[in-house]
Amino acid sequence: MLQSYTPLYRKYRPQSFGDLVGQEVVSTALCNAIEMGKISHAYLFTGSRGTGKTSAARILAKSLNCIEGPTKTPCGKCPNCIDITSGNAIDVKEIDAASNNGVEDARDIIEKVQFVPVSGKYKIFIIDEVHMLSTAAFNTLLKTIEEPPQNLVFILATTESHKVLETIVSRCQRFDFRKIKAKDISKRLEYIAKQEKIKISKDAIELIAQKASGGLRDAIALLDQASVLGLGGKEINIDDVLSISGALSQDDLYAITESLATKQPDMLIELINKIINQGNEPLLILKELVSYFRNMLLIKTAPNTDKIVDLLAVSEKALEQIKSQSQAFETIEIAQIIEKMAEYEVMLKNTTNQMMWIEVILISILHRQDIKVMKDLEKRMSALEARLSGQNIAIEPIKVQAIARPQPAQETPKPVAEAIVTTKIQEKSEIKIEKTEQVITPQAQPKQPNDDLMQHWKDLLKCMSESVRPFYLQMASPVEISSTSIIIAIKTEHWLKNIKESNKLQELETAVKSFFGKEVKISLITLDEQKEVKKKLKSSSEQKNENEPSLSPEKPKIVDRIQIEQNFDIEIEELQEIKAEIEPIRRNFKDFSDETEMVMDLFQGKIID
């Protein structure tokens, strides 16, 4: 009769605390507790799969019930140790909470705890996947776990500790089993391969360790699976591991990312079809790419990659490749590509035509909208809009040679003194002529009231730091600036609150003190309050100057129109060009909320479609 095969992960299960790989802190703490006689009545072992939680529970049970125990080094040869290893011990009960999660199951445990140990010193209950217990079952066990009978120990194991009731967690000693480092997994795999006479290359072992994601059991199971390919003394190489694990090679991931970086759709389509024809699932391709870009994001943002090498789980060669390739992407661009892929992953799971959609997904990422630096464009447009508004800058008219149009013979010619000539300096040399009524304008233009205000505001902005100046340039406008009082209008109540709660108000006070050489009272108002303040200031100014003679006669409205058109012809065209440039981006973001503007400031105005 053929003997049944024992999988390697069961054959090489740790039998002592010294065999636990990558859990030195847990091993040391439990060994010290046993030596000091501080055995708790309840333990909670939590961590990801394959990190040794159940193995540690069995080792602890053997340490407590060994004939030589309690001891931190169980003999493994006495009847108690042998029974615990085989799962037949009377005093050690292993319960699967996934299938025994009801109130009746919890009551059954309570009944059994009343019996004293038979062959060992302790009665031990190991409850695996304890988070699967219902709330009622947890509450049923609560009193027993809090005050158990003498020589009773509960060992609760779970991969999702957040689902365990806090009332249970607070009554246990908690031990977190961390993911095992790839280098520690590699050492253990080399030992097992040597013991089992499995001929496998070092690169293949490192790949298995990386694909295990910190779980030693998964790594040993994959080694066991790969061992069948080494029939006849053949060495198992990295391609064999890739073929049985369904993973993508580092070269394939690099090539796909390179096609996305350089925007080569033909290369991308060819790579996708080649990989899928090799038997790889589209969903797996997307997951591998997410992991690849995640490593790239960490490498690009971390100043010292030596400190995060354990988080990456990649070979040294792959690390250098990713580091070099990361220069082709912006940091925010990588983050947004990961976000897009995560969204597409959900959609890909629910579609029946994954082959088509993986192509659509990657091509859409390849043809992503180019990164736009919106801050400079916004500044330029805001500056031009400010110049076009009458409240910001007073414009002196451009004097142009008058040109008269020829008049029909039957009509009486009208005198023409001025005409509008608009010239597009950079693009066109056309001259636009428009005849107007004769208007007499004074030779010397009086200084407008806003001239000093805006000049003071500009000088005040220059006294601010580079980090704060753009904020005040976009979100604030001056109402009054003098050596005794300064009134600044802020766009919204939200930004007004933001200024008061941040260091922006301190920056403004520092700039004012530097500009005037003394401290001046600063008042911050909203745009709604600005109108009332302007009325009061205007009324005060009119009373002050009511007896002063007028500097110049009132100008007809047509002169204002002519002056504005003459001065702002070029500015209007430039503003239109900027608006045309920024319009594609604004289609996706029609109305910027305050929160959106804060996010755009955080990421320096860079977005990706």
In short:
The chain is α/β, with parallel strands linked by helices. It has 26 helices and 12 strands.
List the helices and strands and how they pair.
Elements: H1 8-11, H2 24-36, E1 42-47, H3 53-65, H4 79-86, E2 92-96, H5 103-112, E3 123-128, H6 135-146, E4 152-158, H7 166-169, E5 173-177, H8 182-196, H9 202-211, H10 216-226, H11 238-245, H12 250-262, H13 265-277, H14 282-301, H15 309-312, H16 316-325, H17 331-349, H18 354-366, E6 372-373, H19 374-388, E7 419-422, E8 432-435, H20 449-462, H21 469-475, E9 476-481, E10 485-490, H22 493-501, H23 504-516, E11 521-526, H24 527-544, H25 557-588, H26 594-602, E12 606-607
Parallel strand pairs: 1-4, 1-5, 2-3, 3-4, 10-11
Antiparallel strand pairs: 6-12, 7-8, 9-10
Helix pairs in contact: 3-4, 5-6, 8-9, 8-10, 9-10, 9-11, 10-11, 12-13, 12-16, 12-18, 13-18, 14-16, 14-17, 17-18, 19-25, 20-23
